[in-house]
Amino acid sequence: MDLSAHIAALRSLIGEAAVLDDQADMAAYATGARYDEGRAAFVARPSSTEQVSAVVSYCVRNDIPLVPQSGNTGLVSGSTPDATGTQGVLSLDRLTGVFDLDVANRSVRAGAGLRLSDLNARLEDAGLFFPIDLGADPRLGGMLATNTGGSRFLRYGDVRRNTLGLKVVLADEEGTVLDLSAELRKNNTGVDFKQIFIGTSGAYGVITECVLNLEALPRQVATALLMPASIDRVPELLSHMEAALGGYLSAFEGMSGNAISAALDHVPSLRNPFQGGIVPEFVILAEISRSNAPRKGEQSLDEVLETVLEEVWETHEGLLADALVGPPQEIWAMRHALSEGVKHRGRLIAFDLSFRRGDVMAFLARMRRELPSSFPDVAICDFGHVGDGGVHFNLVVARDDARLQDDGFEDALRTWVFGIVVRDFGGSFSAEHAIGRKNQAYYDRYTPAEIRRLATGLKAVLSPGRIGAARF
Fold first, then answer.
1. Which residues share a beta bridge with 348?
2. Under 8 Å CB-to-CB from 324, ≥6 apart: which residues?
3. Which residues fall within 8 angstroms of residue 191, CB to CB, at 6 or more apart?
4. What is the DSSP letter of 447?
5. Which helix (H) or strand (E) covers residue 440, if one does?
């Protein structure tokens, strides 16, 4: 059967307009958020779990490889087809019809195609939100498939921690639907199967619905920019802030001076808050928050933050060079502009890394020492979630650099960095972005053989069809 016959069969299952086959119409689905560009055989856009099941069943029975795609905001080529033109894209963008808020349970059942911003807009009137803070605006299915964390992981945890249930379609000949959507926080009746599908890039099945834990919207927030006297004392600063602030501390974000400068250059509306306009080498964004409304006589959070910073200066000499308590909206606007700013500095080679918290700054210090000699004229523009050990380690190369014409240059750079991360620091080469084509070789290299055998066997049982960009 040729491709046109397959497309006709899929249209008979989910509707004429729900299957795209024109390359112009499919371009947005075949192009990733960062550089990767493939070619899709077709794009199927089902609008229900039943339609997803029908598409997956048909493709498995006819040996058609599928790449599930959510918001297509991923950065490791995990949501786009390759260049062969043989892979179909299974888009979740029409799975938005399910939305069932349970205020008493503080949970919501939602379709996997709903965007994070749309979800939180619909929850706002109830005083609730899904507490995963990201610079991008992904759809829920992709957030689950990659187990995103975000800037407030320190207080609320990652997607895995905030997921109560799922509905999943397996890539088998029946397109089996697994209903794992019990809206319970405690359920020790056997294997917690939903966790198998979180963070595994769609290789074990397509998430179509989810039940999410919600949190009360913060009603009081204070933020500060902290300039440590030296980057090697950042772990000490974090420990003091946690001890002094307890559960109030909701974010502790590290931002390099290079990344901040890139954001300020790219977004003219951002205000440079630093004295004399001189951007420090490294800055911490600290946030504290409360979910209750201000009470009479209660110390404001700005005052709480200022008191703690005064304690730091009095009891920890040489720890802080400077600090600025400022408007949260303005400070977070700068943080969220970092990614786009860095991307416009040149050719971006991005790493999403994770370490033991005490190793983050040691790794960054080592990179600042060794990268210039190993790979000259490569700028470090890092930022990330120092409070949970995560780093977006971004390297920027001038677009006219001749080395970019050599396919081996980026591979050599990635191999060098990942070797230090995994071998010397015991870190992870993928903290939040999961496994896509960009990370596949490093999964194969650094994941122990016995773990890979188990992962392969599990996929053979659950979803033997060719689904997902990652190979487990």
1. 396
2. 224, 225, 273, 274
3. none
4. S
5. helix 437-446
Distance CA 343, CA 399 (A): 11
The alpha helices in 286-349, defined as continuous H runs, are 301-315, 328-336, 338-343
User: Within 10 A of 268 (CB to CB), how many other CB atoms are there?
Assistant: 7
Instruction: Give me the helix-helix angle, 234-245 and 301-315, nearest 10°.
Output: 130
What span, in angstroms and rounded, lies between the C-alpha atoms of 264 and 269?
8
Contact 258, 334 (CB under 8 A): no
Whole-number Å distance between alpha carbons of 240 and 310: 12
**What is the rounded distance in angstroms from the CA atom of residue 161 to the CA atom of residue 149?**
10
For residues 214 and 131, give the distance between their C-alpha atoms in angstroms, rounded to a whole number.
Answer: 7
Strand residue runs (E) in 188-313? 206-213, 215-216, 220-228, 249-256, 282-290
Q: Can you spell out the DSSP letters for 345-376?
A: TSEEEEEEEE--GGGHHHHHHHHHHHHHHHST
Are 381 and 253 within 8 A, CB to CB? no
The whole-angstrom separation of Cα 144 and Cα 212 is 10
Exposure string for 313-349, b = 16+ CB within 10 A, e = fewer: eeeeeebbeebebbebeebbebbbbbbebbbebbbbb
**Taking Cα atoms as reference points, which of 51, 27, 49 lies closest to residue 39?**
27
Do 304 and 229 form a contact (C-beta atoms < 8 A)?
Answer: no
Query: Tell me, what's the pLDDT at 75?
Result: 81
Mean pLDDT, consecutive 10-residue segments, the chain of 472 residues? 91 97 95 86 98 98 96 87 95 97 98 98 97 91 94 94 98 98 92 95 97 97 96 94 94 97 95 94 96 92 94 90 94 94 93 95 96 97 94 96 94 96 96 89 94 96 93 89
- Tell me the C-alpha distance between 16 and 271, whole Å: 50
Look up residue 262 and give its amino acid: A
Q: What is the DSSP letter of 175?
A: -
Q: What pLDDT score was predicted for residue 1? A: 64
Candidates 68, 120, 122; CA nearest to 95 is: 68
CA angle 38, 41, 46 (to 5 degrees): 105
CB 396 within 8 A of CB 339: no
Residues 6 or more apart whose CB falls under 8 angstroms from that of 82 comprise: 38, 39, 437, 469
Secondary structure element (H or E) that encloses residue 58, with its range: helix 49-61
CA–CA distance, 161 with 196 (Å, rounded to integer): 13
